[in-house]
Amino acid sequence: MFQAIPTPKGDPILSLITEFRNDPRDQKIDLGIGVYKDDHGITPVMQAVTLAEQVLLNANGTKSYQGLTGDEQYNESITQLLLSGTSALDRCATLQTPGASGALRMLADLIADTAPNSTVWISNPSYVNHRPIMEKAGLTVKEYSYLDAQTKAVDEDAMLAQFAALGSNDVVLLHGCCHNPSGADMSLEAWQKIAELANKQGFLPFIDIAYQGLGDGLEEDTKGLHIIANQVDEFVISTSCSKNFGLYRERTGAALIVSNTLTAAMNSRAKMCELARGSYSMPPAHGAAVVDTILRDDNLNAIWRKELTAMNTRVNGLRAALVQEFQAATQSNRFDYFGEHKGMFTLTCISNEHIAQLKEQFGIYIVGGGRINVAGLNQSQVKPLVEAFVSIGA
Ligand code: PMP
């Protein structure tokens, strides 16, 4: 049966990891895979997570099946974290999913099941997995203008002009904050215009928020989302605890449906449960239990928020240092965009030739397209990185 399957091309990011690992140079720098690292290059287990795990260990739990919706306490906690204070709370249904990837796929399956002729609009550029997830669910995918490659900021006029031409068969996939891969977030004015356009044109906003707390702060990072939540009847959210709780491998996320009525939202969630039953059935329990334990305990919550702020401060410090070093080395403001971007990434838009030169000459590993994982740097690597960029004329 399987003999005819061709050898896969291989994932470019994963093969970069192997190349990096096998590179013998001491000064090599890995700016590829999108995980947060501390000053020692480690992706740490957060202290709040370790403490919550101890609580769970002492609690005489069970490993029995949990049910298709996952951990309902976690669903409630994560809903509050995202939508607290908005009018969407009482018409929202939440499904625990295996990471935001699972949420993206379940929501895509739901859309494909309910309105198979929908087109999903993703930003250009977008998270590398958005297109394949939507397409594998059977949906048509098109791109909307997003990043201005010259200014490295969002071309809001071009984006909004496209949204103004959409209709009720369209789904607009937006990044809630900390756009991946660009780091360029849109203004709150643009969010407001999107809310108005969604109401006027009838398209469905689909907000993927995988970095809440890694931009301007936990509450601040939901400001755009809250504009939609308070003004648009129907929209969906995928969210992740991979980055802000450091729970990557525990596969912890959620899919939220907000509709006109709670009944419509709950029915949609029940449909997603049926769809999940046809694949993974139930989400893994551990990560969700950890998140819920942290969010329900004042002390653990405070520890977690402090750790998250420290992560943010570290990344913002690196961004400031990059801006300063680039200004000094180029006598220009060409690289100031490093300071304007939010979250872990910045898309430099450098050429493939420059990416290859950085790897070969300096052992600096960057993924195709020129996305830099700023959160993978440490202060001592800022100067060599800037010098390498300048020496190859990137
Ligand atoms: N959406 C975006 C924008 C992402 O960057 C990622 C990767 N962190 C995901 C979704 C998937 O996240 P998860 O690891 O929770 O599946």
Brief digest:
It is built from 14 helices and 13 strands.
What key phrases describe this protein's structure?
394 residues, alpha/beta, Aspartate Aminotransferase, domain 1, Aspartate Aminotransferase, domain 2, 2 domains, 7-stranded mixed β-sheet, two-stranded parallel ribbon, 14 helices, 45% helix, 14% strand, binds 4'-deoxy-4'-aminopyridoxal-5'-phosphate
What can you tell me about this protein's structure?
It is a single chain. 45% of the residues lie in helices and 14% in strands. The mean pLDDT is 96. The chain contains 14 helices and 13 strands. The N and C termini lie far apart (48 Å). It folds into two domains: 12-45 and 301-392, Aspartate Aminotransferase, domain 1; 65-296, 3-Layer(aba) Sandwich (Aspartate Aminotransferase, domain 2), CATH 3.40.640.10. The chain has helices at 12-22, 47-57, 72-83, 99-114, 130-136, 156-163, 188-201, 223-231, 262-277, 286-296, 298-330, 337-340, 352-362, 379-392; strands at 29-30, 92-97, 119-124, 140-145, 147-148, 153-154, 170-175, 204-209, 235-240, 253-258, 345-347, 364-365, 371-373. It is globular, with a radius of gyration of 21 Å. A hairpin with a 4-residue loop joins strand 5 (147-148) and strand 6. It is α/β, with parallel strands linked by helices and 394 residues long. The strands form four sheets. The chain has a seven-stranded mixed beta sheet with strand order 2-10-9-8-7-3-4, sandwiched between helices. Helix 2 packs across helix 10, helix 4 packs across helix 9 and helix 7 (188-201) runs parallel beside helix 8 (223-231). Bound molecules: 4'-deoxy-4'-aminopyridoxal-5'-phosphate. 4'-deoxy-4'-aminopyridoxal-5'-phosphate is lined by residues 34, 99-101, 127, 175, 180, 208, 210, 240, 242, 253. This is Aromatic amino acid transaminase. Belongs to the class-I pyridoxal-phosphate-dependent aminotransferase family. Its cofactor is pyridoxal 5'-phosphate. Homodimer. InterPro entries: Aminotransferase_I/II_large, Asp_trans, PyrdxlP-dep_Trfase, PyrdxlP-dep_Trfase_major, PyrdxlP-dep_Trfase_small.
